[in-house]
Every structure is written in structure tokens, then in C-alpha cells.
Write a structure and sequence with these properties.
Shape: globular
Structural class: alpha/beta
Bound molecules: inosinic acid, magnesium ion
Strand content: 25-35%
Strand order of the largest sheet: 4-3-2-5-6-7
Distance between the termini: 20 Å
Helix content: 10-25%
Radius of gyration: 16 Å
Largest sheet: 6 strands, mixed
Number of strands: 9
Length: about 180
Amino acid sequence: MTSREHPDLGRVLLSKEQIATRISELGAQITQDYAGRSVLLVGILKGAFVVMADLCRAIEIPVEIDFMAVSSYGSATRTSGVVRIVKDLDIDLAGRDVVLVEDIVDSGLTLRYLRKYLSARKPASLEVCAMLVREECPPETLESLKYVGFTLPNDWVVGYGLDTAQRWRNLPDVRSWVGNDTAS
Ligand code: IMP
Ligand code: MG
């Protein structure tokens, strides 16, 4: 049995082919929207490291890359309601066209916090690209997202950067996770 046949892994919700196609489309859209300019992609670690690697290579204008690390969940699959900055930005946002890149937007709590935090650094513009968005995320959050990969139902998912207790980030597909909530 390989780790990809593990009983905690449910069905494939998004295949690597579907993801690759969508990433190319998002890259083309960003290339067009920022034509003649450059863009600073700010990835939110750890989850966004995979989408960042793919998305930046699908963009055909000059790109700068930075990362922030925040933590809003412990090892469990429920929100703690608290966002904590674990690693701050290296690049000054002032005057730059910034696209914040998120793995998944769920309650929108992390995003609300980050938007405020990044806006205070006076970028020329700030948009958000979310690879995944939960169907039940608040409508005002959904409307605030310029680039969205896929909308997903309420199940906890892993793969393509997303984890449960730091595991499964390296799966090439997005799969539902059907393990025990308290397992680690
Ligand atoms: P929010 O603050 O509730 O929007 O949660 C956003 C963060 O929660 C994401 O950046 C993920 O790190 C994490 N998250 C939310 N849902 C999932 C999931 O289904 N699998 C793995 N991580 C998730
Ligand atoms: Mg996470």
C-alpha cells in the first residue's frame, strides 16, 4: 500500500489535470489584467507554497515573490478564531501591485485579517487569488476575491498544499480527508 491508498484519504475532488488547467487560466488572466506592469505575489504559508510554484510559472509578466506565514488553526480541523503572524514579509509593499495567494478560504477570518494588515503597508493595489473557496464562505468574502480556482463543498480537504496536522500537503490532487478529527 502506498501512502496515497491510506484509509484517511477519501475521493479525488480535483485531479492534478483539472488543477493544472485552472492554474493556466488564472495565470493568463493575471497576465492580461496586469499587462505592462509587474506583480508581487504574496503566498500564505504553508498551504499556498504549491499553488505559488505553479501560478508564478503561469504568469508571463515580471513577477516578484514573497511569503508570509500565519497560523489560524492548531493541528485540529477547527478554527481557533485567532490569526497569528509567524513570518512577516521581506519585500516592502509600498507602491506595488500585490496579489495575495491563498490555498483555501473557509470562514474568511484569515483573509479579513491579512487584507487589513497588507493594506496598511500601502500597496498600489491589492487583490486576492484563492485556489479554493468553501461554498459556505460568507458572500461578502466571496465577492472580495478577484481570482478563484475552484469552489468546494464543506468537507475537509487535503493535498495540493493543504494539510491535516501537517500531513498530505504533497498529494498532487485535492482529496477529501475522512480520518478522525482528533488524530494526528
Ligand atoms: P479561514 O480563516 O477559516 O478562511 O481558514 C483559512 C485557512 O484554514 C486556510 O489557509 C487553510 O490553512 C485552513 N483550512 C481551511 N479549510 C481547510 C481544509 O479543508 N483543509 C486544510 N486546511 C484548511
Ligand atoms: Mg493549514
